[in-house]
Amino acid sequence: MVTPLQKPPKKNPQVRTRVPTLPSHYRSRSALFMAATAAEGRFMLQVCAEPDCGFVQYPARDACSSCLSDRLVWQDVSSRGKLIATSTVRTSTNTYFRERTPWRLGTVHLEIGPSVMCHLHSEVAVGDEVQLINRLDKSGQSVLLALPLEKAPLQEDDMQLRELTCDPKFRRILITDARNPNAYALAKNLLEAGVSAVFVGEAESWRPYPDRAKLESLQGVELVSLDVTDTSSVQELAGEFGGKVDILINNARFVRPGGIQGRGDVSFAMDEMQVNYFGMMRLAQAFAPAMAGRSADGVNSAVAWVNVLSVYSLVSNPGFGSFSASNAAAHSLSQCLRAEMVSSGVRVVNVYCGPTEDEWHQPLPPPKVPASTLARELVKALQAGLEDVYVGDIAKDIRRKFMESPKVLEKEMTSLEAL
Amino acid sequence: MEALKEKLVNPVELLSSALLSGDVEVVDLTHTLDPDFPVIVLPPEFGQCARFRMEEISAYDHRGPAWKWNTFTCSEHTGTHFDAPIHWISGRDLPNNTVDSIPPEHFVGSVVVIDCSEGSAQDDDFELSPEIIVAWEAEHGRIPAESWVFMRTDWSKRRGAAYLNMRDDGPHSPGPTPEAIRFLIEERSIRGFGTETVGTDAGQGAHYTPPYPAHFYLHGAGKYGLQCMCNLDQLPATGAMILCAPLKIKNGTGSPLRVLALVPKGGR
Question: Alpha-carbon distance B202 to B215, whole Å?
Fold first, then answer.
């Protein structure tokens, strides 16, 4: 039985906030491919491409352990297997595990061949058919965990699983831009996921916007003053609420259609950089230190920083060329933030979104991403513990082509035919 | 005061001593440049008025150990600000139509204040009409040529969303009718027109003919605008003067500025 997660009591002001510790982060470069696939929640292993071999490898390596060929290809493979042995760690010299004992480990014999060492969900026992998930741990590296085949009641509350996810349940959320048309859907989906509070940053309360009344009507939502283009406003909110933000969702976005020559000035481009790039930097300077310090703070520890980016951060969409450039800058900055947050265990999640269903994409043909879809996928990604999320058919298509060849994708996006 | 008048003949020295003695008081008509102060809002596909923003350069720290200073950015038309004739298409070809080329003596002058606060309290779209101006003159005398005319509405006391008062059909705030502005320019040869609202025009000014008549007629005639002012309730109807020099920006269409009024003691 999973021990149900309890809503955390108010913090005891006399107890020191626990300093984050991390599991081992040492991996070979080959094993980083496991981390890259874990970022998207995929289960991939190396398969030998020699026609008469096809041996599945684990752990990651440079040559086939059966035929010594170096033609090893990462492939999505079945994650099912049988739990053949378990062990419970009751003490450890590693501080991270020492603080979390007892910790269950096991050996799973995968139906595709290899036997692997993995972490265990509390609902699996020796002899069970299980499925493995590949996820990032607090040090940002890939680990495997065995789940029951059938979802157990309160499965997500399992302590070892929750260490790998960013489940919003019982956590406090800051959504940075109430004016974004997706703010209401985000707040609503998060509340349905059991968060304990949603703070929504509102810029320029002196001018109305359509969703204000809807946002205010949600029980558990609190509007707070925040303008990501105003350093003093960001600092003030961080001073007041920085220690209560467990998940920060940066949905602030400035978007205008157009590339370089269509506009003839840099005004909108500056606004795009101010919101999409400098806004993220201001938020990170103000909020990230407090979050990093609270990443081991119990049930409602600080756990994730989510950037809602455009998928055109990966390749320019010339019709929105300036916006794409600001998102490329933001994407690069989010990678820097990942590096700066890695020692805290706070995960930086990038949500790559296709064209959104809003006024600025109005003349574009579908498919476009409705706010409800973005919100649903974002919350699912937090619950699943993902690091990179692609939302919408266009984003998924761009992702596939980007992974295949960034240059071919660039050619496709910038060809005469595309224009 | 009598002794001073006997001793000094220089009127500037007279003014200086009146300021020192408190016989002339200084009233600040300026809002603080605050990042959250409302600016005019245009349809989002148009370029927008940049908000006031400030970034620290250093504050006695590793970025500069003994000094504190900031970089600020804003539009020429952010906060309490001055409109030069080049701001509007009607004034674009006039001589001396930019803040750096306007004769500096135009920045110092007398001001009359038409109190529309009562009407504005009752009607968000209160209009300053020629009739109101004529009635005001019956009480206070004819508006002198080359005067500034300020429309007092007490709008500066509004906070938050009540200031722009934006609704689905646009902002609602008081302002002059096209006829009133033409009267002030053509019949009274004023120097400029000033308001407490976000612009010299009414919130619904786009729906007059011509649209934005205060901007169109004032700047077309080489006159100036002052807006987003406060403390107009501390000015007398007549007898005060203002100092309103904008920043000397090359080819500038306007500028945030400090508007100061000199008011005779007890003259409020």
Answer: 10
Rounded CA separation B130/B109 (Å): 23
- Produce one character per residue of A302-336: b if its CB has 16 or more CB atoms within 10 Å, e if not: bbbbbbbbbbbbbbbbbbbbbbbbbbbbbbebbee
Cβ distance A206 to B56 less than 8 Å, yes or no, reads no
Query: Given pLDDT bands bounded at 50, 70 and 90, which one contains residue A135?
Result: very high
Enumerate the CATH 3.40.50.720 domain ranges in chain A, comma separated: 172-413
| Residues contacting B16, CB < 8 A, separation 6+ | none
Distance from CA of B56 to the nearest CA of A (A): 9
Buried b (16+ CB within 10 A) or exposed e, A142-166: bbbbbbbeeebeeebbbbbbbbbbb
- What CATH class is the domain A172-413? alpha beta
Rounded mean pLDDT of B117-144? 98
Q: Are A78 and A114 in contact (CB under 8 A)?
A: no
- Taking CB atoms and an 8 Å limit, are B164 and A204 in contact across chains? no
The reported pLDDT for the residue numbered A214 is 96
Strands A44-48 and B127-128: unpaired
Answer whether residue A350 shows pLDDT above 60.
Answer: yes
| Residue whose pair of structure tokens reads 């994730």 in the numeric block | A304
Within 10 angstroms of residue A102's Cβ, the number of other Cβ atoms is 10
Provide the whole-model pTM. Answer: 0.95
- How far is Cα B212 from Cα B199, in angstroms, rounded to an integer? 10
CB contact under 8 A, B55 and A231: yes
